[in-house]
Amino acid sequence: MLRLATKTNAFKNPRTMAAFGGSLRLYSSLPLSQTITLPSGQSYEQPTGLFINGEFVKSLQHKTFEVINPSTEEEICHVYEARKDDVDLAVDAAHKAFHSEWSQCDPAVRGKYLLDLADLMEANKDTLSAIESMDNGKALPMAQGDVGLVINYLRYCAGWADKLSGKLIDTGSNYFNYIKREPIGVCGQIIPWNFPLLMWSWKIGPALAAGNTVVLKTAESTPLSALYAAKLAQEVGIPKGVINIVSGFGKITGEAISTHPKIKKVAFTGSTATGKHIMKAAADSNLKKVTLELGGKSPNIVFNDADVKKAVQNLIVGIFYNSGEVCCAGSRVFIQEGIYDEVLEEFKTAAEHLKVGNPFEEGVFQGAQTSQQQLTKILGYVDAGKQEGATLVTGGERLGTKGYFVKPTIFSDVKPEMKIYSEEIFGPFAVVTKFKTADEVIELANDSEYGLAAGIHTKSLDTATYVANKLEAGTVWINTYNDFHPAMPFGGFKQSGIGREMGEQAFENYTQWKAVRIGINNGPQ
Length: 525
Ligand code: ADP
Known about the structure:
Residues 57-516 form the Aldehyde dehydrogenase domain. With 525 residues, the chain is α/β, with parallel strands linked by helices.
Protein backbone atom coordinates (compact mmCIF):
# COMPACT_ATOMS: atom_id res chain seq x y z
CA MET A 1 0.00 0.00 0.00
CA LEU A 2 1.53 3.28 -1.12
CA ARG A 3 0.99 5.94 1.44
CA LEU A 4 1.70 9.51 0.50
CA ALA A 5 0.03 11.04 3.52
CA THR A 6 2.30 12.66 6.06
CA LYS A 7 1.18 11.49 9.47
CA THR A 8 1.63 13.95 12.26
CA ASN A 9 -0.54 14.52 15.28
CA ALA A 10 -2.12 17.46 13.51
CA PHE A 11 -3.55 15.04 11.00
CA LYS A 12 -4.95 12.63 13.54
CA ASN A 13 -8.21 14.44 13.81
CA PRO A 14 -10.22 14.19 10.60
CA ARG A 15 -11.62 17.65 11.29
CA THR A 16 -8.13 19.12 11.37
CA MET A 17 -7.42 17.24 8.19
CA ALA A 18 -10.44 18.84 6.57
CA ALA A 19 -8.71 22.18 6.79
CA PHE A 20 -6.11 20.83 4.40
CA GLY A 21 -8.75 19.94 1.84
CA GLY A 22 -7.57 16.36 1.79
CA SER A 23 -4.64 17.14 -0.46
CA LEU A 24 -2.19 15.32 1.77
CA ARG A 25 -4.08 12.10 2.08
CA LEU A 26 -3.79 9.90 -0.95
CA TYR A 27 -3.63 6.15 -1.00
CA SER A 28 -3.36 5.22 -4.63
CA SER A 29 -4.03 1.56 -3.92
CA LEU A 30 -6.24 1.39 -0.87
CA PRO A 31 -8.17 -1.87 -1.27
CA LEU A 32 -11.96 -1.70 -1.35
CA SER A 33 -12.20 -3.65 1.85
CA GLN A 34 -9.95 -4.35 4.76
CA THR A 35 -9.91 -6.99 7.48
CA ILE A 36 -10.26 -5.28 10.82
CA THR A 37 -9.95 -6.87 14.22
CA LEU A 38 -12.47 -5.33 16.59
CA PRO A 39 -11.54 -4.59 20.21
CA SER A 40 -13.77 -7.58 21.07
CA GLY A 41 -11.29 -9.81 19.20
CA GLN A 42 -13.67 -10.59 16.33
CA SER A 43 -12.44 -9.89 12.79
CA TYR A 44 -14.62 -8.61 9.99
CA GLU A 45 -14.32 -7.23 6.48
CA GLN A 46 -14.80 -3.44 6.43
CA PRO A 47 -15.78 -1.89 3.07
CA THR A 48 -13.66 1.22 2.43
CA GLY A 49 -14.99 2.39 -0.95
CA LEU A 50 -17.79 4.75 -1.78
CA PHE A 51 -21.05 2.88 -2.34
CA ILE A 52 -22.33 4.06 -5.70
CA ASN A 53 -24.79 2.32 -7.99
CA GLY A 54 -24.77 -0.84 -5.90
CA GLU A 55 -20.99 -1.27 -5.89
CA PHE A 56 -18.13 -0.26 -3.66
CA VAL A 57 -15.82 1.90 -5.76
CA LYS A 58 -12.70 4.01 -5.38
CA SER A 59 -13.24 7.74 -5.44
CA LEU A 60 -12.41 9.26 -8.84
CA GLN A 61 -9.46 11.17 -7.42
CA HIS A 62 -8.44 8.20 -5.24
CA LYS A 63 -8.44 10.40 -2.17
CA THR A 64 -8.83 8.71 1.19
CA PHE A 65 -9.01 9.83 4.79
CA GLU A 66 -8.07 8.35 8.08
CA VAL A 67 -10.58 6.96 10.58
CA ILE A 68 -9.57 7.17 14.22
CA ASN A 69 -10.68 5.07 17.17
CA PRO A 70 -11.52 7.79 19.73
CA SER A 71 -10.91 5.45 22.67
CA THR A 72 -7.30 4.76 21.67
CA GLU A 73 -6.55 7.65 19.29
CA GLU A 74 -5.17 5.03 16.91
CA GLU A 75 -5.96 4.67 13.24
CA ILE A 76 -8.59 2.05 12.40
CA CYS A 77 -8.29 2.29 8.63
CA HIS A 78 -8.65 4.71 5.74
CA VAL A 79 -11.76 5.07 3.62
CA TYR A 80 -12.25 6.66 0.23
CA GLU A 81 -13.33 10.27 0.21
CA ALA A 82 -16.01 11.55 -2.16
CA ARG A 83 -15.52 14.83 -3.99
CA LYS A 84 -17.97 16.70 -6.19
CA ASP A 85 -17.32 14.41 -9.19
CA ASP A 86 -18.13 11.34 -7.07
CA VAL A 87 -21.30 12.98 -5.75
CA ASP A 88 -22.29 13.63 -9.38
CA LEU A 89 -21.91 9.92 -10.15
CA ALA A 90 -23.91 8.97 -7.06
CA VAL A 91 -26.67 11.41 -7.97
CA ASP A 92 -26.80 10.07 -11.54
CA ALA A 93 -27.14 6.52 -10.20
CA ALA A 94 -29.85 7.60 -7.75
CA HIS A 95 -31.66 9.54 -10.47
CA LYS A 96 -31.66 6.54 -12.81
CA ALA A 97 -32.83 4.22 -10.03
CA PHE A 98 -35.61 6.61 -9.09
CA HIS A 99 -36.91 6.73 -12.64
CA SER A 100 -36.78 2.95 -12.99
CA GLU A 101 -39.07 0.58 -11.16
CA TRP A 102 -38.18 1.76 -7.63
CA SER A 103 -40.61 4.69 -7.53
CA GLN A 104 -43.20 2.86 -9.64
CA CYS A 105 -43.32 -0.63 -8.14
CA ASP A 106 -45.89 -2.02 -5.74
CA PRO A 107 -44.87 -0.30 -2.48
CA ALA A 108 -45.07 -3.64 -0.70
CA VAL A 109 -41.97 -4.65 -2.69
CA ARG A 110 -40.05 -1.76 -1.15
CA GLY A 111 -41.36 -2.76 2.25
CA LYS A 112 -40.08 -6.30 1.75
CA TYR A 113 -36.59 -5.03 0.94
CA LEU A 114 -36.58 -3.05 4.19
CA LEU A 115 -37.77 -6.09 6.12
CA ASP A 116 -35.03 -8.22 4.58
CA LEU A 117 -32.45 -5.56 5.43
CA ALA A 118 -33.70 -5.41 9.03
CA ASP A 119 -33.44 -9.22 9.27
CA LEU A 120 -29.90 -9.22 7.91
CA MET A 121 -28.94 -6.45 10.29
CA GLU A 122 -30.34 -8.51 13.14
CA ALA A 123 -28.20 -11.45 12.04
CA ASN A 124 -25.18 -9.09 12.01
CA LYS A 125 -26.08 -7.07 15.08
CA ASP A 126 -22.98 -7.98 17.09
CA THR A 127 -20.66 -6.87 14.30
CA LEU A 128 -22.64 -3.68 13.65
CA SER A 129 -22.66 -2.74 17.35
CA ALA A 130 -18.95 -3.39 17.73
CA ILE A 131 -18.12 -1.31 14.63
CA GLU A 132 -20.23 1.54 15.95
CA SER A 133 -18.64 1.40 19.37
CA MET A 134 -15.11 1.31 17.95
CA ASP A 135 -15.70 4.13 15.47
CA ASN A 136 -17.78 6.47 17.63
CA GLY A 137 -16.37 5.66 21.08
CA LYS A 138 -19.75 4.95 22.68
CA ALA A 139 -20.06 2.15 25.25
CA LEU A 140 -20.92 -1.17 23.62
CA PRO A 141 -24.34 -1.53 25.33
CA MET A 142 -25.31 1.88 23.91
CA ALA A 143 -24.28 0.76 20.43
CA GLN A 144 -26.25 -2.45 20.91
CA GLY A 145 -29.25 -0.33 21.88
CA ASP A 146 -28.80 1.78 18.75
CA VAL A 147 -28.71 -1.27 16.50
CA GLY A 148 -31.91 -2.55 18.13
CA LEU A 149 -33.57 0.81 17.39
CA VAL A 150 -32.31 0.69 13.79
CA ILE A 151 -33.81 -2.75 13.21
CA ASN A 152 -37.15 -1.74 14.77
CA TYR A 153 -37.26 1.45 12.78
CA LEU A 154 -36.60 -0.23 9.43
CA ARG A 155 -39.41 -2.68 10.22
CA TYR A 156 -41.68 0.22 11.16
CA CYS A 157 -40.94 1.96 7.85
CA ALA A 158 -41.52 -1.28 5.95
CA GLY A 159 -44.97 -1.40 7.51
CA TRP A 160 -45.77 2.05 6.16
CA ALA A 161 -44.56 1.42 2.61
CA ASP A 162 -47.93 0.20 1.29
CA LYS A 163 -50.05 2.34 3.60
CA LEU A 164 -49.08 5.78 2.36
CA SER A 165 -52.39 6.11 0.60
CA GLY A 166 -54.17 9.16 -0.71
CA LYS A 167 -57.89 9.80 -0.62
CA LEU A 168 -60.89 10.65 -2.67
CA ILE A 169 -62.33 14.12 -2.20
CA ASP A 170 -66.00 14.72 -2.84
CA THR A 171 -66.74 18.11 -4.48
CA GLY A 172 -70.05 17.17 -6.05
CA SER A 173 -71.06 14.88 -8.88
CA ASN A 174 -69.47 16.93 -11.69
CA TYR A 175 -65.99 16.01 -10.59
CA PHE A 176 -63.99 13.04 -9.52
CA ASN A 177 -61.07 14.18 -7.31
CA TYR A 178 -58.34 12.25 -5.70
CA ILE A 179 -55.12 13.15 -3.96
CA LYS A 180 -52.14 10.87 -3.79
CA ARG A 181 -48.70 10.92 -2.28
CA GLU A 182 -45.74 10.71 -4.60
CA PRO A 183 -42.06 10.36 -3.74
CA ILE A 184 -39.87 13.44 -4.17
CA GLY A 185 -36.95 11.97 -6.12
CA VAL A 186 -33.27 11.88 -5.26
CA CYS A 187 -32.82 12.85 -1.62
CA GLY A 188 -29.51 14.09 -0.25
CA GLN A 189 -28.96 13.11 3.35
CA ILE A 190 -26.22 14.41 5.62
CA ILE A 191 -25.79 12.75 8.98
CA PRO A 192 -23.74 13.42 12.13
CA TRP A 193 -21.30 11.34 14.14
CA ASN A 194 -23.16 10.81 17.44
CA PHE A 195 -25.55 8.09 16.21
CA PRO A 196 -24.08 7.13 12.83
CA LEU A 197 -26.14 4.01 12.16
CA LEU A 198 -29.33 5.20 13.84
CA MET A 199 -29.30 8.40 11.77
CA TRP A 200 -28.61 6.27 8.67
CA SER A 201 -31.84 4.40 9.38
CA TRP A 202 -33.88 7.51 10.26
CA LYS A 203 -32.90 8.94 6.89
CA ILE A 204 -32.92 5.89 4.65
CA GLY A 205 -35.96 4.05 6.11
CA PRO A 206 -38.73 6.55 5.31
CA ALA A 207 -37.06 7.76 2.10
CA LEU A 208 -36.97 4.28 0.62
CA ALA A 209 -40.37 3.18 1.91
CA ALA A 210 -41.92 6.18 0.12
CA GLY A 211 -40.14 5.40 -3.17
CA ASN A 212 -37.26 7.89 -3.14
CA THR A 213 -33.61 7.11 -3.75
CA VAL A 214 -30.77 8.53 -1.66
CA VAL A 215 -27.25 9.89 -1.66
CA LEU A 216 -26.15 9.88 1.96
CA LYS A 217 -23.04 11.47 3.43
CA THR A 218 -21.75 10.14 6.72
CA ALA A 219 -19.83 12.32 9.16
CA GLU A 220 -16.09 12.39 8.50
CA SER A 221 -15.25 10.98 11.93
CA THR A 222 -17.66 8.00 11.78
CA PRO A 223 -18.03 6.52 8.30
CA LEU A 224 -17.69 2.80 9.07
CA SER A 225 -21.08 1.41 10.15
CA ALA A 226 -22.90 3.04 7.22
CA LEU A 227 -20.55 1.35 4.75
CA TYR A 228 -21.05 -1.99 6.46
CA ALA A 229 -24.82 -1.47 6.39
CA ALA A 230 -24.57 -0.64 2.66
CA LYS A 231 -22.91 -4.02 2.15
CA LEU A 232 -25.91 -5.65 3.85
CA ALA A 233 -28.26 -3.64 1.60
CA GLN A 234 -26.30 -4.97 -1.38
CA GLU A 235 -26.66 -8.53 -0.04
CA VAL A 236 -30.45 -8.30 0.26
CA GLY A 237 -30.57 -7.10 -3.33
CA ILE A 238 -31.85 -3.53 -2.92
CA PRO A 239 -31.68 -2.36 -6.55
CA LYS A 240 -28.56 -0.56 -7.75
CA GLY A 241 -28.56 3.17 -7.24
CA VAL A 242 -31.34 3.24 -4.64
CA ILE A 243 -28.84 3.72 -1.80
CA ASN A 244 -25.57 5.58 -2.40
CA ILE A 245 -23.13 6.30 0.42
CA VAL A 246 -20.49 8.98 0.01
CA SER A 247 -17.98 9.27 2.84
CA GLY A 248 -16.45 12.69 3.07
CA PHE A 249 -16.15 16.13 4.58
CA GLY A 250 -18.84 18.73 5.11
CA LYS A 251 -17.37 21.58 3.15
CA ILE A 252 -16.66 19.39 0.12
CA THR A 253 -18.98 16.38 -0.06
CA GLY A 254 -21.75 17.93 2.04
CA GLU A 255 -21.64 21.12 0.02
CA ALA A 256 -21.80 19.12 -3.23
CA ILE A 257 -25.00 17.51 -1.94
CA SER A 258 -26.72 20.62 -0.63
CA THR A 259 -26.04 22.56 -3.85
CA HIS A 260 -26.67 19.75 -6.35
CA PRO A 261 -29.25 20.68 -9.00
CA LYS A 262 -30.61 17.14 -9.39
CA ILE A 263 -31.16 16.54 -5.67
CA LYS A 264 -34.74 17.46 -4.85
CA LYS A 265 -34.63 17.32 -1.09
CA VAL A 266 -31.97 17.50 1.59
CA ALA A 267 -32.34 16.04 5.07
CA PHE A 268 -29.75 17.02 7.63
CA THR A 269 -28.98 16.22 11.24
CA GLY A 270 -26.27 18.23 12.96
CA SER A 271 -25.50 21.61 14.42
CA THR A 272 -27.81 24.59 14.02
CA ALA A 273 -25.04 26.64 12.37
CA THR A 274 -24.47 24.00 9.68
CA GLY A 275 -28.23 23.54 9.29
CA LYS A 276 -28.68 27.22 8.49
CA HIS A 277 -25.88 27.03 5.95
CA ILE A 278 -27.42 23.99 4.27
CA MET A 279 -30.82 25.64 4.12
CA LYS A 280 -29.31 28.64 2.32
CA ALA A 281 -27.39 26.39 -0.09
CA ALA A 282 -30.54 24.38 -0.77
CA ALA A 283 -32.51 27.55 -1.50
CA ASP A 284 -29.85 29.16 -3.67
CA SER A 285 -29.29 26.08 -5.82
CA ASN A 286 -32.69 24.66 -6.74
CA LEU A 287 -34.95 25.35 -3.77
CA LYS A 288 -34.64 21.82 -2.42
CA LYS A 289 -37.11 20.78 0.19
CA VAL A 290 -35.29 20.85 3.51
CA THR A 291 -35.67 18.99 6.77
CA LEU A 292 -33.36 19.79 9.64
CA GLU A 293 -32.84 18.12 12.99
CA LEU A 294 -30.54 20.47 14.87
CA GLY A 295 -29.17 21.38 18.25
CA GLY A 296 -30.71 21.61 21.66
CA LYS A 297 -30.27 22.70 25.24
CA SER A 298 -33.15 20.75 26.67
CA PRO A 299 -34.59 21.36 30.15
CA ASN A 300 -35.02 18.38 32.48
CA ILE A 301 -37.25 19.50 35.34
CA VAL A 302 -37.63 17.86 38.76
CA PHE A 303 -40.59 18.93 40.92
CA ASN A 304 -40.79 18.61 44.71
CA ASP A 305 -43.16 15.63 44.50
CA ALA A 306 -41.02 13.57 42.12
CA ASP A 307 -39.89 10.05 42.92
CA VAL A 308 -36.28 11.01 43.66
CA LYS A 309 -34.70 7.71 42.70
CA LYS A 310 -36.46 7.59 39.31
CA ALA A 311 -35.92 11.28 38.66
CA VAL A 312 -32.18 10.97 39.29
CA GLN A 313 -32.00 7.97 36.96
CA ASN A 314 -33.67 10.08 34.31
CA LEU A 315 -31.27 12.97 34.91
CA ILE A 316 -28.38 10.54 34.46
CA VAL A 317 -29.82 9.02 31.27
CA GLY A 318 -30.76 12.50 30.15
CA ILE A 319 -27.24 13.87 30.11
CA PHE A 320 -24.74 11.02 30.32
CA TYR A 321 -26.34 8.56 27.87
CA ASN A 322 -24.19 8.28 24.72
CA SER A 323 -21.46 10.33 26.47
CA GLY A 324 -23.79 13.34 26.34
CA GLU A 325 -23.45 13.46 22.55
CA VAL A 326 -27.20 13.66 22.09
CA CYS A 327 -29.00 16.57 20.44
CA CYS A 328 -31.91 16.21 22.87
CA ALA A 329 -29.74 15.68 25.97
CA GLY A 330 -31.33 16.99 29.16
CA SER A 331 -28.43 19.37 29.64
CA ARG A 332 -30.25 22.08 31.65
CA VAL A 333 -31.42 20.52 34.90
CA PHE A 334 -33.99 22.45 36.96
CA ILE A 335 -34.70 21.27 40.52
CA GLN A 336 -37.48 22.71 42.65
CA GLU A 337 -36.25 24.32 45.87
CA GLY A 338 -37.92 21.89 48.32
CA ILE A 339 -36.02 18.93 46.94
CA TYR A 340 -32.98 20.72 45.53
CA ASP A 341 -30.25 19.62 47.98
CA GLU A 342 -31.40 16.01 48.06
CA VAL A 343 -31.66 15.63 44.27
CA LEU A 344 -28.37 17.42 43.61
CA GLU A 345 -26.56 15.20 46.11
CA GLU A 346 -28.06 12.02 44.60
CA PHE A 347 -27.31 13.23 41.08
CA LYS A 348 -23.68 13.88 42.05
CA THR A 349 -23.32 10.47 43.71
CA ALA A 350 -24.88 8.68 40.75
CA ALA A 351 -22.65 10.56 38.27
CA GLU A 352 -19.55 9.66 40.28
CA HIS A 353 -20.54 5.99 40.20
CA LEU A 354 -20.78 5.85 36.41
CA LYS A 355 -18.02 3.76 34.92
CA VAL A 356 -16.20 5.72 32.23
CA GLY A 357 -13.62 4.14 29.94
CA ASN A 358 -12.98 1.49 27.31
CA PRO A 359 -16.34 1.07 25.53
CA PHE A 360 -15.80 -2.69 25.30
CA GLU A 361 -15.16 -3.19 29.01
CA GLU A 362 -17.90 -4.79 31.10
CA GLY A 363 -19.96 -2.27 33.06
CA VAL A 364 -18.75 0.84 31.22
CA PHE A 365 -21.60 3.34 30.79
CA GLN A 366 -19.76 6.24 29.23
CA GLY A 367 -17.18 5.71 26.52
CA ALA A 368 -15.02 8.23 24.72
CA GLN A 369 -16.10 11.50 23.16
CA THR A 370 -15.99 11.06 19.41
CA SER A 371 -13.16 13.46 18.64
CA GLN A 372 -10.36 15.54 20.08
CA GLN A 373 -12.29 18.61 18.99
CA GLN A 374 -15.27 17.62 21.15
CA LEU A 375 -13.05 16.90 24.13
CA THR A 376 -11.37 20.29 23.79
CA LYS A 377 -14.74 22.01 23.40
CA ILE A 378 -16.13 20.39 26.57
CA LEU A 379 -13.05 21.28 28.62
CA GLY A 380 -13.31 24.85 27.30
CA TYR A 381 -16.84 25.04 28.72
CA VAL A 382 -15.53 23.75 32.07
CA ASP A 383 -13.19 26.76 32.16
CA ALA A 384 -16.03 29.07 31.13
CA GLY A 385 -18.29 27.71 33.89
CA LYS A 386 -15.62 28.29 36.54
CA GLN A 387 -14.85 31.78 35.24
CA GLU A 388 -18.52 32.73 35.17
CA GLY A 389 -18.90 31.79 38.84
CA ALA A 390 -20.86 28.52 38.63
CA THR A 391 -20.00 25.79 41.14
CA LEU A 392 -18.29 22.66 39.83
CA VAL A 393 -20.11 19.83 41.64
CA THR A 394 -18.23 16.94 40.05
CA GLY A 395 -16.10 16.03 37.04
CA GLY A 396 -14.77 18.82 34.88
CA GLU A 397 -11.62 17.08 33.72
CA ARG A 398 -10.21 14.68 31.20
CA LEU A 399 -9.84 11.07 32.28
CA GLY A 400 -6.45 9.59 31.44
CA THR A 401 -4.20 10.81 28.65
CA LYS A 402 -5.08 8.42 25.84
CA GLY A 403 -8.55 8.47 24.30
CA TYR A 404 -11.05 11.30 24.47
CA PHE A 405 -12.55 10.51 27.87
CA VAL A 406 -14.04 13.13 30.13
CA LYS A 407 -15.50 12.74 33.61
CA PRO A 408 -19.28 13.18 33.95
CA THR A 409 -19.56 16.86 34.82
CA ILE A 410 -22.15 18.78 36.82
CA PHE A 411 -22.20 22.50 37.53
CA SER A 412 -24.68 24.03 39.99
CA ASP A 413 -25.64 27.65 40.78
CA VAL A 414 -25.92 28.20 37.06
CA LYS A 415 -27.56 31.44 35.95
CA PRO A 416 -29.32 32.14 32.63
CA GLU A 417 -26.74 34.73 31.61
CA MET A 418 -23.91 32.18 31.70
CA LYS A 419 -22.56 30.62 28.50
CA ILE A 420 -22.80 27.12 29.95
CA TYR A 421 -26.54 27.68 30.51
CA SER A 422 -27.43 28.71 26.99
CA GLU A 423 -24.92 27.13 24.58
CA GLU A 424 -25.04 23.54 23.38
CA ILE A 425 -21.99 21.70 24.73
CA PHE A 426 -22.69 18.20 23.36
CA GLY A 427 -20.94 16.28 26.09
CA PRO A 428 -21.51 14.77 29.55
CA PHE A 429 -22.03 18.21 31.05
CA ALA A 430 -25.13 19.16 33.07
CA VAL A 431 -25.93 22.63 34.42
CA VAL A 432 -28.22 22.81 37.44
CA THR A 433 -30.52 25.68 38.39
CA LYS A 434 -32.95 26.00 41.33
CA PHE A 435 -36.56 27.12 40.81
CA LYS A 436 -39.58 27.92 42.98
CA THR A 437 -42.79 27.63 40.91
CA ALA A 438 -44.08 25.88 37.80
CA ASP A 439 -44.57 29.18 35.99
CA GLU A 440 -41.04 30.29 36.83
CA VAL A 441 -39.51 27.08 35.47
CA ILE A 442 -41.63 27.23 32.32
CA GLU A 443 -40.23 30.68 31.64
CA LEU A 444 -36.67 29.56 32.36
CA ALA A 445 -37.05 26.43 30.25
CA ASN A 446 -38.45 28.33 27.28
CA ASP A 447 -35.78 31.00 27.46
CA SER A 448 -33.66 29.29 24.80
CA GLU A 449 -33.18 29.55 21.06
CA TYR A 450 -33.68 25.78 21.00
CA GLY A 451 -36.78 23.64 21.46
CA LEU A 452 -35.95 20.03 20.81
CA ALA A 453 -37.02 18.17 23.96
CA ALA A 454 -37.86 18.52 27.62
CA GLY A 455 -38.29 16.29 30.67
CA ILE A 456 -40.72 16.64 33.58
CA HIS A 457 -40.52 14.59 36.78
CA THR A 458 -43.54 14.74 39.06
CA LYS A 459 -46.25 12.48 40.48
CA SER A 460 -48.92 15.08 39.74
CA LEU A 461 -50.80 14.65 36.49
CA ASP A 462 -51.99 18.24 36.80
CA THR A 463 -48.44 19.59 37.06
CA ALA A 464 -47.20 17.31 34.29
CA THR A 465 -49.86 18.28 31.76
CA TYR A 466 -49.86 21.98 32.70
CA VAL A 467 -46.10 22.21 32.18
CA ALA A 468 -46.02 19.93 29.11
CA ASN A 469 -48.60 22.11 27.39
CA LYS A 470 -46.53 25.25 27.95
CA LEU A 471 -43.06 23.97 27.10
CA GLU A 472 -41.71 24.93 23.69
CA ALA A 473 -40.31 21.56 22.71
CA GLY A 474 -40.90 18.97 20.00
CA THR A 475 -40.80 16.11 22.50
CA VAL A 476 -41.80 16.18 26.16
CA TRP A 477 -40.87 13.17 28.28
CA ILE A 478 -42.74 12.79 31.56
CA ASN A 479 -41.10 10.57 34.18
CA THR A 480 -38.76 9.19 31.52
CA TYR A 481 -36.05 10.66 29.24
CA ASN A 482 -34.22 9.89 25.99
CA ASP A 483 -36.95 7.34 25.44
CA PHE A 484 -37.62 6.79 21.73
CA HIS A 485 -40.17 4.77 19.83
CA PRO A 486 -40.42 4.46 16.03
CA ALA A 487 -44.05 5.55 16.13
CA MET A 488 -43.32 8.77 18.04
CA PRO A 489 -42.26 11.72 15.84
CA PHE A 490 -39.08 13.54 16.77
CA GLY A 491 -37.99 17.04 15.79
CA GLY A 492 -37.60 20.56 16.99
CA PHE A 493 -39.47 23.73 17.79
CA LYS A 494 -37.64 27.04 17.21
CA GLN A 495 -34.01 26.73 16.05
CA SER A 496 -33.92 23.00 16.81
CA GLY A 497 -35.21 22.13 13.40
CA ILE A 498 -37.75 21.85 10.64
CA GLY A 499 -39.82 18.74 10.01
CA ARG A 500 -40.14 15.50 11.93
CA GLU A 501 -38.38 12.17 11.84
CA MET A 502 -39.99 8.87 12.87
CA GLY A 503 -43.70 8.35 13.30
CA GLU A 504 -46.19 8.81 10.49
CA GLN A 505 -44.94 12.42 10.26
CA ALA A 506 -41.59 11.34 8.77
CA PHE A 507 -43.36 10.45 5.56
CA GLU A 508 -44.60 14.01 5.15
CA ASN A 509 -40.97 14.90 4.48
CA TYR A 510 -40.45 12.22 1.87
CA THR A 511 -43.64 12.55 -0.17
CA GLN A 512 -45.46 15.31 -1.97
CA TRP A 513 -49.17 15.50 -2.58
CA LYS A 514 -50.58 15.41 -6.07
CA ALA A 515 -54.19 16.58 -6.52
CA VAL A 516 -56.02 15.16 -9.53
CA ARG A 517 -59.38 16.74 -10.50
CA ILE A 518 -61.39 15.10 -13.24
CA GLY A 519 -64.35 16.89 -14.82
CA ILE A 520 -67.24 14.51 -15.46
CA ASN A 521 -70.06 14.93 -17.96
CA ASN A 522 -73.17 13.82 -16.21
CA GLY A 523 -75.09 11.02 -17.82
CA PRO A 524 -74.32 8.72 -20.79
CA GLN A 525 -72.95 10.37 -23.96
P1 ADP B 1 -20.05 19.18 14.00
O1 ADP B 1 -19.50 20.55 13.79
O2 ADP B 1 -20.34 18.88 15.40
O3 ADP B 1 -19.29 18.09 13.31
P2 ADP B 1 -21.91 19.54 11.91
O4 ADP B 1 -23.31 19.93 12.00
O5 ADP B 1 -20.98 20.49 11.28
O6 ADP B 1 -21.49 19.17 13.36
O7 ADP B 1 -21.77 18.14 11.17
C1 ADP B 1 -22.83 17.27 10.90
C2 ADP B 1 -22.72 16.80 9.47
O8 ADP B 1 -22.77 17.94 8.63
C3 ADP B 1 -21.43 16.08 9.12
O9 ADP B 1 -21.72 15.02 8.23
C4 ADP B 1 -20.62 17.15 8.45
O10 ADP B 1 -19.66 16.65 7.55
C5 ADP B 1 -21.70 17.89 7.70
N1 ADP B 1 -21.35 19.27 7.30
C6 ADP B 1 -20.54 20.13 7.94
N2 ADP B 1 -20.45 21.29 7.27
C7 ADP B 1 -21.21 21.17 6.16
C8 ADP B 1 -21.52 22.02 5.05
N3 ADP B 1 -21.00 23.24 4.93
N4 ADP B 1 -22.36 21.54 4.10
C9 ADP B 1 -22.89 20.33 4.20
N5 ADP B 1 -22.63 19.47 5.20
C10 ADP B 1 -21.80 19.87 6.19
